[in-house]
Amino acid sequence: MDETTIRVVCFLGIFIVIAIVESVAPRRALIVKKSLRWFGNLSVQLVNGILPRLLFPILPVGMAVLCTQKGWGLLNVVPLPVAAATISSLLVLDLVIYAQHALFHRIHFFWRIHRMHHTDMDLDLTSALRFHPLEIIISLLIKMAVVAVLGPPAVAVFIFEVLLNGMAMFNHGNFRIPAGMDNLLRKILVTPDMHLVHHSTLRQESNHNFGFNLSWWDRIFGTYRAEPAAGRESMIIGLTGFLDDRYARFWKMILNPFEKG
């Protein structure tokens, strides 16, 4: 199978499993009509899946292949064993995504683009797909630049892309993990209960827990918060000023960066 087929199969497999778990053991009752949210979020995902392929001649995995062929990037100048190069590349890419996420919260121009993600008044696996197309394009440019500088193995970039997509659906998932298991998992990974804090309407809470894969970066850089002040069941999800069902509609999401607020 080619790269696209593998990624689609992984996406659908993870999506179906998490959707089933959410229906069996939901963490919170949904506020907005599910059909409205899912139509909007999945429509955005469809645009985000097509647009980069129309705008870019190559994507991050293709850039990694090109770097290997041309000898570009640090790891092609100072080569490491394949295993070491792969692991180090995964760590660097994950750190970059953490830093990018934190940056999008701290710089107003980027925040206006990113805030669409936070206007979701519920949290489930489709929230992981709710990113503005402009953010997807900026994120791709950042990843392409990092790949060009680092020169990682193409397999590392491919693994990272699959992991990032799968882990985003996992940690946005609306399902319950037993407290003991959650506390153990979040020593390494970002769990749904850990990421839930990030979607609080309170800025002092949403400006924490920026990681998508590894929880280490939040702990290292002091952006980790274990619990929301109101508790996981009572906290309000969403963005103040946008707490209305209409912001779940596709065109309201697309126009969000240009609205006041």
Low confidence ranges: none
By secondary-structure content and strand pairing, the structural class works out as mainly alpha
Q: Supply the number of helical segments.
A: 13
Question: Main β-sheet: number of strands, strand sense, barrel status?
Answer: none
Q: Give the topology string: H per helix, E per strand.
A: HHHHHHHHHHHHH
Secondary structure tally: strands: 0
Our measurement of the CA-to-CA distance between the termini, rounded to an integer number of angstroms, reads 46 Å
Can you give the helix content as a percent range?
55-70%
Total number of domains:
1
Mean pLDDT: 96
**CA-based shape:** globular
From the alpha carbons, calculate the radius of gyration and give it in angstroms.
18 Å
Strand content: under 5%
Explained architecture:
This protein has 261 residues and is mainly α. The protein has one domain. The protein contains 13 helices and no strands. The chain has helices at 3-24, 34-55, 60-70, 74-77, 82-106, 108-118, 133-150, 154-171, 179-185, 192-196, 203-206, 216-220, 250-254. Helix 1 (3-24) packs parallel to helix 8 (154-171) and helix 5 packs across helix 8. The longest helix has 25 residues, at 82-106. It is globular, with a radius of gyration of 18 Å. The model has no long low-confidence stretch (mean pLDDT 96).
